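Whiteboard transcription, Tuesday session. T.W. wrote the structure tokens on the left side:
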């Protein structure tokens, strides 16, 4: 296979780092954009990846600075736009979540439109752009989150608005490239950089006593390496089109605790009290009002509700096959201990 050059925004991010590692492993070149070259540790970790010394270039670019990504996408055929904040907590939802998601996406797409070399952009969106309150229906790529706002699940709102802005740009500007979107759910797995990924933090919280009880929550989990591969498969397949839901399996909190129990060490504090039934969820929604706004909004819209999804499209059209989530959880715990995020 001929060596290709890929651009990745948010290179030090959880999924982006794995995408870079996989591209380098197969012999491609990567130009990665980061917010600051001064953050030496994360950048140094990436430069230590096999193949990085010769085929990885790291440059500085800012999501909210117009024209900042021109150098990043120049001469590149495929761009992975992966830079976007992920946090349920914030000080100013518009400034901290929505602006980077919307304006950042439009800045990257505008830079790509000015670069005649760009033929495809693969955007990392989220299941948050699909729903913010599971209602039992089986979700597909046709579903959109229409309920989130700056006050209701603002992180979900940022992802929905960011993806909508991307599709509106494509319709309005009709650039010389096409757009493919990956919508993963809860992305877990080993990290290539020292920061604690927000999704992996759920496992940390389960093992350190943050959860007061086993609650009626569930997540569609997927291995970070599979999500990274999904982007690459979408880049490689000329027929890839539209959105792709990306989640391996629905895992309830009770199942998660059962998986974590044999992995626990002395000093870990797994929840033992069980309130994963209707009355417990009813009480939990009232308890949510004592929590920070982001967590409170999430609990009120997710407690007691099961998310169902159909990820057949990503398997049929681009051939993604998922790792076993239970093995991923075990590998995640071991990795969290190695990075000292767990005792």
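and on the right, the sequence the group agreed on:
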């Amino acid at each position: 296979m001929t060596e290709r050059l890929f651009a990745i925004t948010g290179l030090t991010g959880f999924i982006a780092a794995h995408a870079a590692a996989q591209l380098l492993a197969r012999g491609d070149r990567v130009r990665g954009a980061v917010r600051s070259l001064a953050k030496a540790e994360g950048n140094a970790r990436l430069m230590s990846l096999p193949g990085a010394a010769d085929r990885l270039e790291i440059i500085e670019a800012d999501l909210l600075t117009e024209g900042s990504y021109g150098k990043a996408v120049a001469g590149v055929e495929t761009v992975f736009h992966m830079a976007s904040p992920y946090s349920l907590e914030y000080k100013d939802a518009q400034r901290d979540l929505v602006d980077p998601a919307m304006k950042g996406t439009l800045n990257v797409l505008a830079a790509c439109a000015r670069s005649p070399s760009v033929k495809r952009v693969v955007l990392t969106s989220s299941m948050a752009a699909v729903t913010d309150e599971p209602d039992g229906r089986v979700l597909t790529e046709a579903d959109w989150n229409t309920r989130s706002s700056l006050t209701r699940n603002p992180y979900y709102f940022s992802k929905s608005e960011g993806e909508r802005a991307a599709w509106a740009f494509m319709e309005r500007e009709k650039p010389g490239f096409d757009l493919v979107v990956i919508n993963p759910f809860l992305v877990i797995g080993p990290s290539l950089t020292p920061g604690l990924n927000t999704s992996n933090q759920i496992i940390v919280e389960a093992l350190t006593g943050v959860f007061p009880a086993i609650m009626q929550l569930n997540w569609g989990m997927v291995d970070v390496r599979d999500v990274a591969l999904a982007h690459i498969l979408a880049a490689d397949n000329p027929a890839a089109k539209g959105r792709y839901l990306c989640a391996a399996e629905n895992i309830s909190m009770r199942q998660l605790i059962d998986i974590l129990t044999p992995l626990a060490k002395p000093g870990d504090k797994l929840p033992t009290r069980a309130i994963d039934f209707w009355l417990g969820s009813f009480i939990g929604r009232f308890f949510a009002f004592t929590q920070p706004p982001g967590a409170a909004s999430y609990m009120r819209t997710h407690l007691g509700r099961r998310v169902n999804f159909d990820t057949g499209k990503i398997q049929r059209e681009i051939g993604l096959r998922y790792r076993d989530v239970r093995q991923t959880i075990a590998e995640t715990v071991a990795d969290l201990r190695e990075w000292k995020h767990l005792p």
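Someone added at the bottom: The mean pLDDT is 92.
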